[in-house]
Amino acid sequence: MSGGVLPGAVRAEYPLLQSCTYLNSNSTGAMPRAVEAVLAHYWNTMRAWRDDTWDGWLSQMQAYADGVAGLISAPAGSVALDVNLSAHLSRLGTCLDFSGERRRVVVTDLEFPTVPFIWKGFARYGAELVVVPSRDGRVDEALLEAAIDERTRLVCVSHGAFATGAVLDVARVAKAAHAAGALIATDAYQTVGTVPVDVHALDVDFLMGGAHKWLGGSEAAFLYVRPELLPTLRPAATGWLAGATPLAFQAAEDFAPDARRMMGGTPAPLMVLLSQPGLELLKGVGMAAVREHSLKLTSRLMARADEAGLQVVTPREPHQRGGVVALRFPGDVDVMKRLVARGFICSHRGYLRAAPHFYNTLEEVDAFMDALVHEQRKEAA
């Protein structure tokens, strides 16, 4: 399906949009109607089960992984799958040595709670967590650069902040990390699918994301690994799928040569199958068109917030923001709850967050802001 003028015909592919004004794709994206057929096919497979089903499932999972790789300009074989980012990041941690002087993991205070929690756990193996503070909803790249030195093992930062939508200049941070001899991993859950992402341009060693937000899928998370690093990674937290020949069901002699070495045990194929239609629709539209439409919608949200005198926490410059607009005002939690009750679906993570996607319209944004301003005025009265 080509982009044309968004949302166009693509809107009809998402049944959820018929029942509400859905500006919540940063939390959970709408799923396309094609998912229903996937569920039916899965049930038909299960009620007539044969063990050779796994051959097809693993092939489909690899095809999805390679499809994600194409979306982020990565080569086939460089993306592994699991059920969430926590599994990927924890497994990556078991590949790293924290016993020497180079033991620091540098993060920011804008990371999703998973990230610092995991690295605090690795303190038992010698890891030392360094947290760079943010200001006004974003992190100053110069402060991050200053925190990176010869003691840094890994820089682990978000490409897009989950609470504010602020986009970090990851390429700049990667340059500093590599200059210090450190690796860099980035959480791109809040950018892949709404912001064009090129792992070569970012120059990252690892990039993580998932399907259930901007990719319109289910709980299928992915990990990109710079291909040159793959032979050096030997995770301690592993499973049978990471072996060179898993379907031989023999004791593994070595890890798989590609990113599959970063997988674990028996996977959840349904989550990947459910995510394929959303990925296909997004790639059919094209990320350039998605981004152009997203900026148009988020700019309207910001303009309407300014007119109403509401604080916009999200950075204004297009290159510094993703698909989220975060607003702050007294009573914003209660306003969010009343909006949801009225069918205007948004979320709150420290701020009221609105997140339109390529299937949303300017009319929806205006209707949402009309309702928000009405509820905010009631709250302030």
UniProtKB/TrEMBL annotation:
Record-linked InterPro entries: Aminotrans_V_dom, PyrdxlP-dep_Trfase, PyrdxlP-dep_Trfase_major, PyrdxlP-dep_Trfase_small
Residues covered by the Aminotransferase class V domain: 98-367
Recorded GO MF terms: transaminase activity
Gene3D superfamilies: Aspartate Aminotransferase, domain 1, Type I PLP-dependent aspartate aminotransferase-like (Major domain)
Superkingdom of the organism of origin: Bacteria
Keywords: Aminotransferase, Pyridoxal phosphate, Transferase
Pfam families: Aminotran_5
PANTHER family from the UniProt entry: BLR3095 PROTEIN, CYSTEINE DESULFURASE
Name listed for the protein in its UniProt record: Aminotransferase class V-fold PLP-dependent enzyme
Organism expressing this protein natively: Corallococcus sicarius
